[in-house]
Amino acid sequence: VVGQSAKYAKKQKGLIGMFLRSPTYKPDSLLKELKPAMNDERMAIEGLYMFTFNQIDNTVQWSQEQLQRIK
């Protein structure tokens, strides 16, 4: 799984730069693009890893906002 993640990251030009340039990153657009794959049972996606980079409060708030949005 990690190898697949690394391959994907290599293909995403500018993704790392986006993380480095922004003091607060919200993965809303990434989740929007992943939604079809996440809803596809053939993909067998069970969850996502969220790295907080010590921004735990912001991550929890964002996560709660996302959960409210889908209810």
Q: Which residue ranges are poorly predicted, with pLDDT under 50 across at least 5 consecutive positions?
A: none
- Averaged pLDDT: 80
Largest sheet: none
Multimeric state: single chain
Which bin fits the share of residues in helices?
55-70%
Can you tell me the overall shape?
Answer: globular
Order of helices and strands: HHHH
Give the strand tally: 0
The figure for the number of domains is 1
Task: Output the structural class.
Answer: mainly alpha
Count of helical regions: 4
Mind telling me the C-alpha Rg? 13 Å
Binned strand content: under 5%
What is the rounded distance between the termini? Answer: 30 Å
Explain the overall architecture.
The chain contains four helices and no strands. The longest helix is centred in the C-terminal third of the chain and has 15 residues. The chain starts with a helix and ends with a helix. It has one domain. The mean pLDDT is 80. The chain is globular and about 35 Å long. The protein is 61% helix and 0% strand. 0% of the residues are buried. With 71 residues, the protein is an all-alpha fold.
